[in-house]
Amino acid sequence: MITNLAEGVQAFTSNVFLVPGDRPVLVDTGANFDLVDAVRDRIDEIDAVILTHTHRDHVGNLPAVKDAFDVDAWGYDTSIDGVDHAIADEETVQLGDDDYVALHTPGHKDDHLCLYSADASVLFAGDLVFQNGSFGRTDLEEGDRGALIESIDRVLERIDPELEAMHTGHGPSVTSDPYDHVELSAQMARQM
After folding, report:
1. Are the CB atoms for 147 and 105 separated by under 8 Å?
2. Pairing of β 25-27 and β 165-168
């Protein structure tokens, strides 16, 4: 079962998802809390860290996790400090027991990836979209509202309308009609 290890943390952080299975991984590492102990409370080892993007709130714990578990980090852009291996657009990556397709989804940050598994019916949305029609900030460096809208539209075209779970970079995961939340995000991003 996918678990948010940052749930209940009272610090500036992103969500951190532990995906157990054949290839146990962390999706993002968050910041400003003891993630190493949180992982060790649940599992002995992880195989990799998969990054949705490299804003500080998503990678602050990355050095500690890499040291503690002797793992590499995978992300879109290896020119960014801490990213050891590139995940190309449309590349298939194993998380836990399932294969996910990586979708390059800039707009919030140039190196942003969403990860989608049709078989698992799961979307890791990073900071592209959130529950109730919210969407990633575009007022930060590398932010671009037009690119964000294109990225949301691209994800909408790929995911199944019957999607079962959307795990976002902040806030609660969406397990009730997540497709509708992505659709609403696409509408809201166009209105502002």
Report:
1. no
2. unpaired
**Helices within the chain (DSSP H only):** 35-40, 56-59, 62-69, 145-158, 178-191
What phi, psi does 170 have (nearest 5°)? Answer: -145, 150
Q: pLDDT digits over 96-144, tens only?
A: 999 999 999 999 999 999 999 999 999 999 999 999 999 999 999 999 9
31 near 14, Cβ under 8 Å?
yes
Yes or no: say if 41 and 65 are a contact pair by the CB < 8 Å rule: no
Question: What are the C-alpha distances in Å from 171 to residues 33, 69, 108, 130, 162?
Answer: 17, 27, 16, 7, 21
Cβ-proximal residues to 139 (8 Å cutoff; 6+ apart), any chain: none
Predicted local distance difference test score (pLDDT) of residue 162:
97
The total of structural domains in the chain comes to 1
pTM across the whole model: 0.98
User: Residue 134's domain is classified under what CATH number?
Assistant: 3.60.15.10
Bridge-based pairing of strands 73-75 and 85-86 is: parallel
Q: Domain span at residue 12?
A: 3-191
- CA torsion through residues 145, 148, 152, 153, sign: positive
Closest alpha carbon to 112 in 125, 96, 99, 97: 125
